[in-house]
Amino acid sequence: MPILEARSLTKTFRRPDKASGFKGALKHLAQRKYKNYTAVDGIDLTVEAGESVAYVGPNGAGKSTTVKLLTGILKPTEGTVRVMGRDPHTERIANAHDIGVLFGQRTQLWWDLPVEESLKLLKHMYGVSDADYKARIAKFDELLDLGEFMPALARTLSLGQRMRADLACALIHDPKMVYLDEPTIGLDISVKDRLRAFLRELVDDGTTLLLTSHDLADIEEVCERIVVIDKGKVAYDGPIAQLKAHYITTKAVNLHLEGPADVPALTEKFPDFAWAAGASPSEVTVTYESARFSTAEVLGSLTARLSPRDLSLSEPSIEDVIRRLYAGELTQ
Ligand SMILES: Nc1ncnc2c1ncn2[C@@H]1O[C@H](COP(=O)(O)OP(=O)(O)OP(=O)(O)O)[C@@H](O)[C@H]1O
User: Fold this and answer.
1) Pocket probe mutation, ligand 1, options 10, 13, 229, max atoms within 8 Å of Cβ
2) N or C: which end of the chain has fewer CB within 10 A?
3) 99: domain range?
4) What confidence category does residue 105 fall into, taking pLDDT thresholds of 50, 70 and 90?
5) Which of 184, 210, 245 is the last residue of a domain?
6) What region holds the ABC transporter domain (predicted)?
């Protein structure tokens, strides 16, 4: 049985129907009108135990609403959700023991308590044994360096510290299914790296993860599968590697030449490749179709005929593919 199963999941919100500006607000006060807005529109999603799934889409696509439906915070307008066989909305208390949730924009720490006290409160709420609590805190401390701010009041924490403490709160009861909504938002690169390594370890230890993020490095480092949603509907669902292999049909090499790069002359000399000026006058990027040429073939030909000072391969970028998926240029 899958750990999570959503069928035709739909959420419609009732929103004020008013014209913009002061006049529109006044008119709405006099005669209130509403219209329905479908934020999540018939989503089917099956997640097997141990999977790490990235849930991505442009602003307003319906990601957070989906997470709220999957965690039982919101009730679907139509469709069903089952998490470990339960309806997360009607069986919220039983469900809470098996899931961990983090909304990057919000905290579940008690604002005026030391971090340690928030964790202890959660320990009691979930009925975590002393031994398990100790072992988990030791592990979080090792991977997230909690120790330094355990005695600090939540409201005094930096954003990076707060997010690490919130992750510990979300995981203190060792949930089987974890939902993280933008866990790296606003963090600096070193904290992001640390969180990603932590999440990767969590997945390697068998936790099932659903991660929403606008940061594609989070997704590539932590998840194997990607679900792209747009306007409340699934636009793509499959392995990240397959998405890349399917849509990334070209590769690129950056060359640093001895002298200035003459793009028109290079195009004439190597008409099968696309040439573009690089960051400095002596740098140039050559793009080729990976189905037609092997990288070895391309490098052999370029080094033999151009004797570059240096060269590097450009990693195919998933960003480009996602951007095109968001723009509706690609279909599954
Ligand atoms: N409680 C609500 N009442 C009315 N509309 C809502 C409500 N919650 C969300 N929406 C609307 O539903 C749509 C989807 O919102 P949601 O927060 O799920 O998007 P998102 O994909 O998480 O976006 P972002 O990447 O910007 O966080 C948006 O247009 C939003 O304004």
Assistant:
1) 13
2) N
3) 4-245
4) confident
5) 245
6) 4-256
Residues 201 and 92 both lie in one domain: yes
3-state DSSP call for residue 35? strand
pLDDT tens-digit series, residues 114-136: 999 999 999 999 999 999 999 99
For the stretch 279-299, pLDDT in tens is 899 999 999 988 899 989 999
Residue ID of nearest Cα to ligand 1 atom 2: 13
Confidence label for 317 from pLDDT (cuts 50, 70 and 90): low
pLDDT band at 53 (very low <50, low <70, confident <90, very high): very high
Domain edge (last residue) among 203, 220, 245? 245
For residue 317, the one-letter residue type is: S
Residue in the structure block whose two tokens are 């499959």: 238
- In this structure, the answer to whether residues 213 and 301 fall within a common structural domain is no
Q: Is the Cβ atom of 228 under 6 angstroms away from ligand 1? A: no
Ligand 1 pocket check for 11: Cβ under 6 Å: no
- The pLDDT confidence band at residue 37, using thresholds 50, 70 and 90, is very high
Query: Who has greater pLDDT, 24 or 296?
Result: 296
Expressed in angstroms and rounded, the spacing between residue 37 Cα and the centre of ligand 1 is 10
What pLDDT does 315 receive?
65
For residue 316, pLDDT over 70 is answered with no
Q: How many structural domains are present in the chain?
A: 2
Atom 17 (ligand 1) nearest CA = 64
**Cβ–Cβ contacts within 10 Å for residue 204, how many?**
10
| Sheet with strand 177-181: strands edge to edge | 99-103, 177-181, 208-212, 52-56, 225-230, 233-239
Instruction: Give the Å distance between the CA of 182 and the centre of ligand 1.
Output: 14
CB of 60 sitting under 6 A from ligand 1: yes
Q: How far is the CA of 59 from the centre of ligand 1 (A)?
A: 8
